[in-house]
Specification:
30% helix, Alkaline Phosphatase, subunit A, alpha/beta, four-stranded antiparallel sheet, globular, 503 residues, 14 helices, ten-stranded mixed sheet
């Protein structure tokens, strides 16, 4: 018996190591309001992001990767593998930022195959329930959401923790602490920053170089927050190497929507910003690194945040229940990731975008406004106010579009170029662009391609008509217009506050 025990222990240890080797660790980094162009490797004239550049160079870089036009919808779609309309998240305000309580999300699936799961940073999907009841073993975020940048109080696993220093530095410290405690299991770490979302603040050492270069305080601080993320990314990558976790860990880094406060500095020649269906509102960077396993390359396949859940479940060997699988909008990207050369994947794939910032109860009025359809290199788009006088009373996006439509400047995320980035399409009409040749969307091809317009319009109508009932059922809108009279207007007015969605 004395001899058998150590033999058995050794065998079990070997088996554990073997199984662990088959299941990679995963770190998913999501930045908040950083644009596709806000990376030095993508041509930014001021930013120095050596660690993002290195990550990109060592990764499968998806250069045709798309997210939702704003924060909460992206987070909901990323974690569920479904378009945000299917899980109840249509806005960034309560109650329409609340992820439906029945939604199954990525960490719940990974836990079924032995993963330890950690969430650090910004949640912004409501608390019915919060992340600690949605499959995360470890939860850490700061009290005060985006408004507390320094010396924050954190809540770590329901316990208060007083911290010193800059918030994003602490987030990355928390991620490394979580990873240190996950040596016996493969881990999934979802690290979601608040930066560079407003309100803007960063350590002076990051701000000063931009101010010295002649940029104003807004642009200097915005870019400083991105360089701080880059600094912390470098710390994290060094930590993985120093702890011998580098080769067994997948690192994924994406942004949640288009550019915001840096729009007038650089937007990679694209049109549009956050909260628009233009290319500049939905195109994201997407770096996937697994050293020794995936060959670094740039991929042009039409891909999206929707693909993260099915891909990671496939890599981990986690079975996706049929109830989830039949509603998935994402694809398993393993064939693309594992190929040495670029390969075609779902060439006829269609992505649907909708800004959905209508006041509650007005969904039907906005079927065709602020919407985009992507297929191949083409973007078909409609962006105009709904024309409903009742809707225009609210400080909704329709009000903003009306201002631009009438020749004024809407100042959200744009100071000198608002007219160009927010110019509306002709009412009742789709416009069409080849975004590969024309990322600035200056040459409308709709009159030359009536057949394609008709084809994509039918696809959009079918998508909306099938998705709308589910959106209503999951709490994404009030549904019946008669319900408008019963809707409190305080959350939809100019006095309404956007919830931080902190757990």
């Amino acid at each position: 018996m004395k001899l058998i025990t150590p033999i058995l222990t050794t065998a079990l240890s070997f088996l554990s190591i073997h199984l662990f080797a088959q299941k990679p660790n995963v770190i998913l980094i999501l930045t908040d309001d950083q644009g596709y162009g806000d990376v030095n490797a993508h041509g930014h004239p001021y930013l120095k992001t050596p660690h993002m550049n290195k990550l990109r160079a060592e990764s499968v870089s998806f250069d045709n990767f798309y997210v939702s036009p704003s924060c909460s919808p992206t987070r909901a779609a990323l974690l569920t593998g479904m378009h945000e309309f299917k899980n109840g998240v249509t806005h960034t305000i309560v109650p329409r930022q609340e992820l439906h309580p029945d939604a199954i999300i990525l960490p719940q699936l990974l836990k079924t195959v032995g993963y330890k799961t950690g969430f650090i940073g910004k949640w912004h999907l409501g608390n019915k329930p919060g992340p600690e009841k949605r499959g995360f073993d470890w939860c850490s975020t700061n009290v005060g959401g985006p408004h507390k940048h320094f010396d924050s109080t954190f809540i770590r696993n329901r316990k208060r923790l007083e911290t010193k220093g800059y918030r994003e530095d602490v987030f990355f410290d928390e991620a490394m602490t979580f990873i240190k405690g996950s040596e016996q299991n493969p881990f999934f770490c979802y690290l979601s920053t608040y930066s560079p979302h407003t309100p803007l603040a960063a350590p002076e050492k990051f701000v000063k170089p931009f101010r010295d270069a002649g940029l104003n305080d807004i642009h200097s601080t915005y870019l400083a927050m991105i360089e701080n993320i880059d600094y912390n990314l470098g710390r994290l990558m060094k930590f993985l190497k120093d702890t011998d976790r580098e080769k067994e860990t997948i690192v994924i880094m994406i942004n949640d929507n288009g550019v915001t406060e840096g729009l007038d500095v650089y937007n990679a020649n694209m049109r549009g910003s956050k909260c628009s269906a233009w290319e500049g509102g939905t195109r994201a960077f997407s770096f996937w690194r697994w050293p020794g396993i995936w060959h670094p390359k740039t991929v042009g396949n039409l891909t999206a945040h929707l693909d993260i859940l099915p891909t990671l479940c496939g890599l981990a060997g986690a079975e996706i229940p049929q109830s989830v699988k039949r509603n998935l909008d994402g694809f398993d990207l393993r064939p693309v990731l594992e190929s040495k050369k670029a390969i075609k994947l779902q060439p006829e794939r269609i992505l649907f975008h909708h800004v959905a910032r209508w006041p509650s109860g007005f969904a039907k009025d906005h079927k065709y406004s602020m919407a985009g359809v992507r297929q191949g290199n083409h973007l078909m788009l409609r962006s105009h106010n709904c024309g409903n006088k009742e809707c225009l009373k609210y400080m909704s996006q329709c009000k903003a579009l009306q201002i631009v439509e009438n020749g004024g400047k809407h100042m959200t995320y744009a100071y000198g170029t608002a007219q160009y980035h927010w110019k509306v399409s002709p009412r009742e009409q789709w416009v069409l662009f080849d975004v590969k040749k024309d990322p600035g969307c200056k040459n409308d091809l709709s009159l030359k391609n009536p057949q394609l317009i008709s084809q994509l319009t039918r696809a959009y109508d079918q998508w909306w008509d099938t998705t709308y009932p589910e959106m209503i059922a999951k709490g994404g809108d009030l549904g019946d217009p008669e319900e408008r009279r019963k809707t409190p207007k305080r959350n939809e007015s100019s006095k309404g506050k956007i919830s931080d969605g902190k757990p």
